[in-house]
Every structure is written in structure tokens, then in C-alpha cells.
Amino acid sequence: DGGITQSPKYLFRKEGQNVTLSCEQNLNHDAMYWYRQDPGQGLRLIYYSQIVNDFQKGDIAEGYSVSREKKESFPLTVTSAQKNPTAFYLCASSRSTQETQYFGPGTRLLVL
Amino acid sequence: GIQVEQSPPDLILQEGANSTLRCNFSDSVNNLQWFHQNPWGQLINLFYIPSGTKQNGRLSATTVATERYSLLYISSSQTTDSGVYFCAVMTSGSRLTFGEGTQLTVNP
After folding, report:
1. In angstroms, rounded to a whole number, what is the distance separating the alpha carbons of residues B34 and A109?
2. In this structure, are residues A71 and A81 in contact, taking their beta carbons and an 8 Å threshold?
């Protein structure tokens, strides 16, 4: 089955803790993205990667970090520097940055 | 950066009714997509339509790039059409900018 998977579905973070959200795709797409969605709002871009070993900051990168060591994987770390991390996080991929983006099912992050 | 405005913000319909959702954008675009976000949060691609008209079943979309707007038509709406509809655009860069969405509720 081709697609994008995200795990976990729900994640709880304690104060001062770093957490990592997983995103995997088997669509052979070069580009991958991370978005944040707050209640009642649209999506905002955190980071994107056009190709392996390359990534760029989006509009709200502060407090987040990423890596792109493999084409299929683009994990997102929410660091303790992100003071308001509670949100719905969506990962996407596309063949190139100019083409249609496809989304995973999302991870809901809650702060305890 | 580019501004994306969607209207109406909320729409309530009876099953079987037709509707039109609008997306205005402030600059030239080379990529425009419509998405449906279901109640569980999954974003589903509806159309990739930087210009012209496309149809897929009960849904169709038209983008008039020269006038900087796009329309999404839903005919004979069903309760499963409920959710949030997003328009997203890209200019010369590599980033999609999303509108705030239209919350659609279809009542039986």
C-alpha cells in the first residue's frame, strides 16, 4: 500500500522534554514537509526538504528541528524551546516542490 | 507574502443542496490546490488547479488566474461532504500558503 504514515497518533509531552514525531512515505517522493495546525486555523509550514540531506526553514521553524537522512523519512523534533507545542502536526510529500502535496493522517501533540 | 482569503468561513446546508466556495489570492500563483479535511483531521486532495476548470464527480473547480480567484463547486451535497475545505497556493517559491478554510456542515 502506497502512502504516508505518521506516528504516534497522539503524543504527550512534559515540560522541558524533547519529543520526535515520525513521518514515513513509500511514494518515492523527493520533497517532504511538516505543517502545524492550530484549532480553527489553516496550516503553517514548519520545515520542508526538497531532497535527501537538505532542508529549509518554513514560516514557524523556531523551537523545531528536522533531519532528512533517508528519502523515505523526515522526522520532526519538537524541542523544549517551543513554548506552545500543543497542536495538530501534519506531514506531507510530493514528487517535487512544484507538484501536488499528499498528506499523512497527523499527530496530535499535547503538553502535560 | 501572498495572502489567501476563503469565503464563506462557515456554511450550513441541507443534504442535496449545491454550494460554491471561493478562494481569493493576492499575487500570481503557479500552484493551487483544494483540500478537504475530514472530521478526523485527514487532508484529502481534491484538485490541483493553477488555472482552468476540472471536474471530479459531484465536485468541480475553476481557477481564473488573471483575476486571482478560484471557486470550488459542490453539487447535490451529502453528509459525508462535511468538514473543512482549504485552498492553498504557491508563488515562485516552494511553499504552499493555506487559507483559513471554509467549515461546511451538511445536515440530513
Report:
1. 26
2. no
Would the CB atoms of B43 and A56 count as touching at under 8 Å?
no
Exposure of B86 by Cβ count < 10 A (0-12 exposed, 13-18 middle, 19+ buried)? buried
Q: Which chain B residues contact residue A2 at CB under 8 A?
A: none
pLDDT for A7 equals 94
Spatial neighbors of A110 by CB under 8 A, at least 6 apart, are: A10, A11, A12, A13, A86
pLDDT in tens, A9-24: 999 988 889 999 999 9
What is the pLDDT at residue B103? 97
Q: Which residues contact A60 (CB under 8 A, 6 or more apart)?
A: A36, A44, A45, A46
CA atoms lying within 13 Å on the CB side of residue B80: 3
User: Is the Cβ–Cβ distance between A43 and B35 less than 8 Å?
Assistant: no
**Using an 8 Å Cβ cutoff, are B93 and A56 in contact?**
no
Check: CB of residue B82 under 8 Å from CB of residue B76.
no
Minimal Cα distance from B86: which residue of A? A42
Amino acid at B55: Q
CA distance B88 to B106: 23
Nine-digit cell string for A98: 512544484
Among A42, A105, A106, beta carbon nearest to B98 = A42
